[in-house]
Amino acid sequence: MITNMTARKILDKADIRPSVQRLAVMNYLIEHRNHPTVDDIFSSLSPSMPTLSKTTVYNTLRLLVDGGAAQMLTIQEHNSCFDADTTPHAHFLCKQCGRVFDMNFFDFKDRIPDEVEGHSIEETYQFFKGTCRYCKNKMNKQFKD
Amino acid sequence: MITNMTARKILDKADIRPSVQRLAVMNYLIEHRNHPTVDDIFSSLSPSMPTLSKTTVYNTLRLLVDGGAAQMLTIQEHNSCFDADTTPHAHFLCKQCGRVFDMNFFDFKDRIPDEVEGHSIEETYQFFKGTCRYCKNKMNKQFKD
DNA sequence: GTACGTGCAAAGAATTTGCAGATAA
DNA sequence: TTATCTGCAAATTCTTTGCACGTAC
After folding, report:
1. Global pTM?
2. Which nucleotides along chain C are within 7 A of a protein C-beta?
3. Are strands A71-73 and A90-94 parallel, antiparallel or unpaired?
4. A124 and chain B: CB distance < 8 Å anywhere?
5. Strand pairing category for B119-131 and A119-131
6. How far apart are CA A132 and CA A137, in angstroms?
């Protein structure tokens, strides 16, 4: 469940000192649930924070992930993307446009055990690939032309 | 189910012309089920094929993936790894040593629909992160010292 | 004033591209 | 011979690192 905590409260909870830059990145993640990449975040914030550097975005995201305030997704081949929603949910990658969408978690038939073949399971990911509804529409239109 | 098809047969089936390099890469994947990276493959084959280039390994892997003869996994942050087993199974990434292990697929309570929120699902991935049995052993030993 | 944060520039790593020579149908 | 394949070198992209300056307690 996504709470209404402000960026400030989330940083406090994660024990991250709330600099202007960190608040901006956290706030961006809260307001943009479309799984932005480092570049997305940097490009969007840069106009209003001209001195912001990509290094700081990288630093901040690492802090957020380490502090449990965000999730890093490595679904895409080339770059990581980030998600302020750290609750269990699934992800869908469109093979056409490369966008990542949230999906509800699909229940497993049985509970995932803490340990499998001696390995301790700490995190569970579900993800799917296919064609998103927008690209399907686009492709349909092309056929009609 | 993993079949006993030789590299040659798999390439034929995928309509990939069986050059020496392609057979070597395919065969490597068949014989090494530990999810090798491009570099693993290149470094291992290079001694016996001194003229082999990384470009060719990249080219070949792309052909194999496109032809359905191998799977590319983007679990790891920095590089992709490859798996000749294209049947449904889950993967486990050890956060300590970075190794990727196979796991049996966990059944979902319900069948995954072909379409969710308008998106067409074509591929389903399950993966887990945690500490593998080998790293757990190592950590236990350290505590005993 | 000391520790922490920021951002530039450079380095590093993974992957892709362009292209010329080699190989195979 | 003609299309395909290979592999070098260079380019590109993503990310990390080193370091000097700035900021905050």
Report:
1. 0.90
2. 4-9, 13-18, 24-25
3. unpaired
4. yes
5. antiparallel
6. 9
